[in-house]
Amino acid sequence: xxxxxxxxxxxxxxxxxxxxxxxxxxxxxxxxxxxxxxxxxxxxxxxxxxxxxxxxxxxxxxxxxxxxxxxxxxxxxxxxxxxxxxxxxxxxxxxxxxxxxxxxxxxxxxxxxxxx
Length: 116
Hints:
Layout: H1 3-15, H2 22-59, H3 66-115
Helix pairs in contact: 2-3
């Protein structure tokens, strides 16, 4: 068994011109359906977590001081928690819409691939 030949072929395969196949098109459509929901969810989650952290810092008086800082920190922290809490339901709803938008094309392409 010649492992050098196998490795050389796998590396050459990465640099060979890619043929446009139906499977590649199916993967692109699947990615196109899921990507907006994923990007939004990560962005929303990061922003909500930062808001929550800012509220915690204010409430524990790491930044700010006094009773006003404590109350504002609690309010901001609660807003951040709510943002984190609604992140997953928003993701599910956006993913459902994205899948519904491209469902017909994906199913048709999948049927063509399965029939061949």
